[in-house]
Amino acid sequence: MISLQNIQKVYRTSTIETLALNSINLNIKKGEFLSVMGPSGCGKSTLLNIMGLLDAPSKGDINIDDQKLNNLSDKQLAQFRNKKLGFIFQSYHLINDLKVLDNVMLPLLYRNSSEKERKQSASEALGKVGLSNRVKHFPTQLSGGQKQRVAIARAIVGKPEIILADEPTGNLDSAMGNEVMDILLHLNKSEGTTIVMVTHDEHMAKKTHRLMRLFDGSQVQ
Amino acid sequence: MFRHLFKLIWNKKKQNFLLISEMFVSFLVIFAVFTLLVYYYQNYRTPMGIDYENVWVVNYTNSYKTENTDSLAQFYETLRQTVKSLPQVEEISFSSENFPFSMSTDGDGLVYNKSREQVDVFNVEDSYKDVLKIKVLDGRWFASQDAVAKERPVIINETLKKKLFGNENPVGKLVRFDYDEKTKVKVIGVVEDAKVKGDYVKVDPGSFVRLDTGSFHQLGNILIRISPDADASFEGHLYKTISNYMKNSNIEIEHLVNKRKDINYFSLVPMIVLSIVAGFLVVNVAFGLFGVLWYNINKRRGEIGLRRAIGASGKSVSVQLVSESMILATLSLIIGSFFAVQFPLLNVFDLPAGVYITAIVLSVIFIYLLVFICSLYPGKQAASIYPAVALHEE
Questions:
Q1: ipTM of predicted complex
Q2: pTM for the complete prediction?
């Protein structure tokens, strides 16, 4: 499903070069739930950004569904992200000026779908995360756990095959973190969604199919 | 997408209020400038109605002190013949102070039936028409037999004809001036409108009254049509001829071409002042808009990063931000147009409705262009935001 071959990422400034990722080779099967762990600054988020086509590697190839993605245009990459990928972030990234339903509808705005279809899909997605009663709320009226559930609903509304979650439980207490984790596990199990999750939480990582550890930009396990 | 943008703008109405207000005020100022511009342009495009080239005006003070009207008339008749005998002089006519481009007016009310119009009154001689090559559209110009006419003759211009008589033929109709309510005067002709107050000022209703010999007590101007080959040496010769004849009189010769330039410049002063004020305002608004949009983009980096992540291309982010500005501009223009449209509806300043409508359309285009240009660069900057970096910042 996802194949990274010899991925290297170097950040360059006028004075220094920082090697963020070094020769990463990774294959993730369809329906797999992979967690990525490692200390801060080891390159976890960089790896996720590269997988999510939000950042380009300095070297190496990315293939998703046997499609080589290195040379796609900005527009093609955007379309690919919209159809195939869903993102969940530690700080939710909800738009506070839009209601919950509108936030969840957001990815569908960049598709050819009607307002009615968008609303229906967003309502279904909110139903899956147990927030059907919060559609008219603004994000500022929700708890952290609820916000992350809205972010999950936004990630799954377009029915993507892959979800990339960057420390989804990082800002939540253990009860809320478990709630969010349960939703992700359920999505993986019931809908076969491939999930890659960056986490610092060993306990959460153990619930996934496979654990990958990074240290100083290199794969150690 | 527009529905989504409307929601976004509506939910941020407090933040957007100032921006809308700024665009609204700019629209009103630009509307005022365009109204004046369109009005001036429309006036500029109308025909001049007279031939002022090669016409000089001699301004004099009456040095022949006498109470005897006949001898005064004889004195000026001799002057007329003397000047007219000069080879470069084609025609000569004594005139009241309000000759073309003089910045002087003489007005009165003219009444026909129950209608009354405020009119400019020009006291002229029979030769005035030939000096300025005025076109008679209907009826006739003054002639010597008018001196003994039963009713005193008056000639009107097209504007007065339309206002006072509409589609009726005014020739032969009796009217009266406010200053002499008991005496009726008879319209004997209609002449083409002449822009005697300059190129940019609309033609007012005008009437021409024939000078009589007694008028020389008050007159002080002679209009002279000279041949195209007349030069500075002839001007000197003319000056000497007149000053030799009118001892102790202050004499000044001016060219109507120069008088026209002066009066045009004078008319343009308010336009220039308003344009400078509007220019400053527009520059301020442009910088303001630019700054606010730039600030908004920096504040919304997280949102922009998110949009990129979930499927927006750089171009669509740019289009979204420009579209948001254009929607804000539309809202301010709707409010602005509501106020602007009251001007033609309430006939404020007595300008034609077409002037206001044209000014509204031009102002709308101008504001849209201004907002579009000011949004382009911040929009482009937004498109270049790197999503991975922007998402990490929040």
A1: 0.89
A2: 0.79
